[in-house]
Amino acid sequence: MSQPDEPLHQDGIGDQDELDRLWTPHRMAYIRGENKPTDASSGECPFCRVPKLSDEDGLVVHRGALAFVVLNLYPYAPGHLMVCPYRHVADYTETTDEEAGEIADLTRTAMRVVRAVSGAGGFNIGMNQGHIAGAGIAAHLHQHVVPRWPGDQNFMPIIGRTKTLPELLGETRQLFADAWPG
Questions:
Q1: 51-82 pLDDT per residue, tens
Q2: Of 62, 80, 140, 142, which is the active-site residue?
Q3: Sign of the C-alpha dihedral, residues 33, 38, 43, 49?
Q4: Which H or E run contains 123?
Q5: Is 142 assigned a catalytic role?
Q6: What is the pLDDT of residue 21?
Q7: How far apart are CA 93 and CA 151, in angstroms?
Q8: What is the pLDDT of residue 34?
Q9: Which of 31, 63, 87, 147 is most buried per CB count within 10 Å?
C-alpha cells in the first residue's frame, strides 16, 4: 500500500496520470445497447413498455391522453425529461395534429415545472430524427427537454467525461410529479 504522499501505481494500466476515477458501471447497459429496440418492433421498445409500468418504476412524471413525460434513464443533465407519444411512431411528420399538439403542450408544461422546481436558467429542446441524426432509440419518437444552468458545463463533462447528478432519478421524478399542474 502506498503512503498518502506517494503516487498510486497499478501495473498494466498504462502511464500513470493525476486524474481521479469515478466509476459508473451502470452506464454499461447504455453502452451495450441493452433495452434498445433493434428494429421498428414495438415489442422491444422501451417507450412502449414504460407506460405499462407504475409511474415510479417507469420514471413517468405525467401521463396525458396521447403522450407522456418521463425522466431520461441516461440524462444529459439533472432533470432531463422526454415527451413521448404513446403510439409507436418514429418520425415527427407521422404524428397526428392532436399528438403534435399534446407533445408541444407537455413540453411547455415540463419547462414550467422544471423551472419552478429547480430554477433552471434555460433549456435545450429537441428531437433527433433517425439514427443518422443521433437518435439512440430511433424507432419511437421522443422529444428531449434538457434543463440548463449557468456554468453547468464545467470541467466534469468536458475534460473528465463524467456527468454529476445531484439527486436520484426517483427523487427527481417525485418532485416533478408533485409540481405538475392538475
A1: 999 999 999 999 999 999 999 988 888 899 99
A2: 142
A3: positive
A4: strand 122-126
A5: yes
A6: 56
A7: 35
A8: 62
A9: 147
